[in-house]
Design a protein that fits this description.
Two copies of one chain form a homodimer. The first copy, chain A, has 395 residues and is of the alpha/beta class. Chain A has one domain: TIM Barrel (Alpha-Beta Barrel). In chain A, strands 1-4-5-8-9-10-11 form a seven-stranded parallel beta sheet. In chain A, strands 2-3 form a two-stranded antiparallel sheet. In chain A, strands 6-7 form a two-stranded antiparallel sheet. In chain A, a hairpin with a 5-residue loop joins strand 2 and strand 3. At the A-B interface, helix 9 and helix 14 of A face helix 9 and helix 14 of B.
Amino acid sequence: MSNLAITPPHATSQAQPAGPADKGYAALRNDSFIKACWRQATDHTPMWLMRQAGRYLPEYCATRAKAGSFMGLATNVDFATEVTLQPLERYALDAAILFSDILTVPDAMGLGLSFAQGEGPKFATPVRDEAAVAALAVPDMAKLQYVFDAVSSIRRALQGRVPLIGFSGSPWTLACYMVEGGGSDDYRLVKSMLYSRPDLMHRMLAINADSVAAYLNAQIEAGAQAVMVFDSWGGVLADGAFQRFSLAYTQRVLAQLHRSHAGVDIPRLVFTKGGGLWLEEMAQLDCEVLGLDWTVNLGQARARVGGSVGDTSRWAKALQGNLDPNVLFAPPAQIDAEVARLLESFGPVHTDPHLSGPTHIFNLGHGISQFTPPEHVSALVESVHLHSRRLRQRV
Amino acid sequence: MSNLAITPPHATSQAQPAGPADKGYAALRNDSFIKACWRQATDHTPMWLMRQAGRYLPEYCATRAKAGSFMGLATNVDFATEVTLQPLERYALDAAILFSDILTVPDAMGLGLSFAQGEGPKFATPVRDEAAVAALAVPDMAKLQYVFDAVSSIRRALQGRVPLIGFSGSPWTLACYMVEGGGSDDYRLVKSMLYSRPDLMHRMLAINADSVAAYLNAQIEAGAQAVMVFDSWGGVLADGAFQRFSLAYTQRVLAQLHRSHAGVDIPRLVFTKGGGLWLEEMAQLDCEVLGLDWTVNLGQARARVGGSVGDTSRWAKALQGNLDPNVLFAPPAQIDAEVARLLESFGPVHTDPHLSGPTHIFNLGHGISQFTPPEHVSALVESVHLHSRRLRQRV
């Protein structure tokens, strides 16, 4: 990853407050998430929730029932727009995230994605041998036009309320599903290929990385105002293998991404579940934000990779996370106590609008559970707003 | 955990080379594992494998078929002895580990353990409410006599070839199974109790800790020459919760354990899967060895908690681990390369018989897979012996 030594054009840039209108999109009214991505001060800790448009919301289930299937929902622009906006109607969230699935890219490669009722994703033709790897190629992005249409539609529907985050799975995470053919609890097949035939694995990961880069760039062109790479299974790799087979290809994606679009810089977020031990190496990535799962202490992560106030070096990262989604099964008083503890653990937040410094974007450490009571999410959002404003008054 | 400040009696002791005979047990001929536990020099890196007596061995499957069921195997002294010794017949391993299951303790509490064919463990009466927690108590150890009888039988059968490791699940790991009623992929029920009713969770964990301590002490009295606590699910906890709900109760176990038996010191090992971020806190535990999963870099772990040569402080820990079990699906040449890389990553090993210093016990980072080709384990053992002797010649 020798390109990590090159300073990117945006390293010293400031986020534009709202940005010039793009394709007639409305100017951004709540830019707290974008500001925090660029390590700029905000009046509260911005928040959104991974999988915020999901099965815990009855209105989501109603739309999904109309769509008939998960992919029916994801491929229909109107449905995808509707469910993306649903959590924003209920909760004071500071960002929207495209409703889609990380497996759209391998599906476009021809692997035949399906979601059986009550089960996880399945690929009809998993990639398990040399011939299957040789047949892989970066898919025609036209096959993913439904995603880019959804991005444009959601961006219009948002009318500038909050920014829209686009996303993709990481090259390694996609490879896990492509080789295993679905979920796994031991990653035996994909790791067997990795250790037995690293040449095949590297070829697959290079194709995945170039596919993901093209996919995220097309989302940016369609209107995504930030992009996030979900390295959901990076944390199952051994030390050493993680760096070679996950991190290097996430960097290959990042190196190809548009730095800005329509005159506005596009922040990039990377989340490796189980990646807490590798934060220093992840901080070398050409991105602005690192997502953290709940095993990581926020204050320690800040000390390791969050930089200081006034630090504009590119390895000073904004941090996103990291409440255990299971906290949301506790009563509101306990949720409030856990939120207060989490925000406190990050430490004092900077409030100088002229300096960049450590910032925290509140999120869960993983996707919200389908069993979450929706009213507990209301309590969560209130607690984050209350305590994060109080923290700033104390500075 | 204020008791962590107390220096234990064994802190400056040296392992006895073979130990006086106990109940007529033969003197120990291969003490490399025990020496490495005490951070003493050995002529090679001692090794054993988590779940080394298991389904990847055809002879194990044959004995299990005779026993009729997993619990039939675990509760029959002759069968348990037979399968414990099977891997030692095939491979030059440096320790034996009692064949049993971590769920014997909650079974003795009356929760009704069963293993359905092809499925994981199930409890007939999981612990999910205040009444169920109130009914819990430290079980009568007589109900676990079959385990202690197996320990004595195995110890006799070993005839001093290698030491016998006894073990238990950690209080938190047992609580996961007790509340969930079996395996889980989100730990929703146990974490809901933890966050909603921490009082109930603390009560359950205190009972589990006292039960585990009594259980391990009885194993020591029966002949176990080292004991290991498997905190298999500590790593699913959030930072903060891990310290309060897992680590504190592992320490409560350790504080109650016999330091020595029949004149021989008993080393204690703790393995938290996914615990790499908390090594400094785990190093404060009153134990000798920390087990590591494959996400941890051995050299970094050594720098953090392994101490230096001549360091006799109690927080200088021996390290055990940490090859990804999936490496064993690769051909022998790749296994050899991964073993060499792993041993190198630990760094130079000390060879002075008069000083304590950083030591490494080779193991996998988790239990061996049932799909492992047995001949690949032969290749693994040869590689560990070859490379670890070569490393010592280089010093």
